[in-house]
Amino acid sequence: MSDDNGRNDLRMPDDDEVFAEVTDMLGANRVKVRCADGEERTARIPGKMQKRIWIREDDIVLVEPWDWQDEKADITWRYEKQEADQLRDEGHIH
């Protein structure tokens, strides 16, 4: 999974996904995120992630914006802190 210099092969966004940073916890399995495309969206934490993956403010996540309501999205992936640092180092996120 990782090579000699400590770089991991990270999951990159699919065509319909964007990087986002969690800015606020709203409760009821919802968070406010600031997406890489400049949009602020309300993102939903899907049921399969709720108990297994804890999402906190300032986490870097992948979200999939809804086709029919652009201000909303579903979280599809959460990056560990070191993975998020690597994404910043490589210029994928700011």
UniProtKB/TrEMBL annotation:
GO terms for molecular function: RNA binding; translation initiation factor activity. Seems to be required for maximal rate of protein biosynthesis. Enhances ribosome dissociation into subunits and stabilizes the binding of the initiator Met-tRNA(I) to 40 S ribosomal subunits. InterPro entries: NA-bd_OB-fold (IPR012340), RNA-binding_domain_S1_IF1 (IPR006196), TIF_eIF-1A (IPR001253), TIF_eIF-1A_CS (IPR018104). PANTHER family: EIF-1A. Keywords: Initiation factor, Protein biosynthesis. Belongs to the eIF-1A family. NCBIfam families: eIF-1A, PRK04012.1-1, PRK04012.1-2, PRK04012.1-3, PRK04012.1-5. Residues 6-80 form the S1-like domain. Pfam families: eIF-1a (PF01176). This is Translation initiation factor 1A. The keyword DNA repair does not apply. PROSITE patterns: IF1A, S1_IF1_TYPE. It comes from the Archaea.
